[in-house]
Amino acid sequence: MTLDWEAAEFEMEPPLHERISSEKVKVYLQEKGFDSIVNSIHECVYGISIQMK
Questions:
Q1: Tens digits of residue pLDDT in 1-53
Q2: What's the pLDDT score for residue 1?
Q3: What pLDDT score was predicted for residue 27?
Q4: Would you state the pLDDT for residue 11?
Q5: Rounded CA separation 10/32 (Å)
Q6: C-alpha to C-alpha distance for 25 and 3, rounded to whole angstroms
Q7: What pLDDT does 37 receive?
Q8: What HEC string does the chain produce?
Q9: Nearest-CA neighbor of 24 among 43, 5, 51, 52?
């Protein structure tokens, strides 16, 4: 599982321009041949489980 910041404006770091949305990551992984499941860990953090198709 990989954790990352959701691409939305929050008071917590990192800045918005350095974040990648969970939807963009999911689409990218699908294009590269992976299945993924996105889980919301907190309103500003998501986890994504990645598996080969």
A1: 889 999 988 887 788 889 999 999 999 999 999 999 999 999 899 999 999 98
A2: 84
A3: 96
A4: 82
A5: 30
A6: 11
A7: 96
A8: CEEEECCCCCCCCCCHHHCCCHHHHHHHHHHCCEEEEEEEEECCEEEEEEEEC
A9: 5
> What contacts 24+ positions apart, CB below 8 Å, involve 44-49?
44/5, 44/6, 44/8, 44/10, 44/12, 45/3, 45/4, 45/5, 45/6, 46/3, 46/4, 46/6, 46/22, 47/1, 47/2, 47/3, 48/1, 48/2, 48/4, 48/22, 49/1
Q: Say if residue 44 is exposed, middle or buried (CB neighbours under 10 Å; 0-12, 13-18, 19+).
A: middle
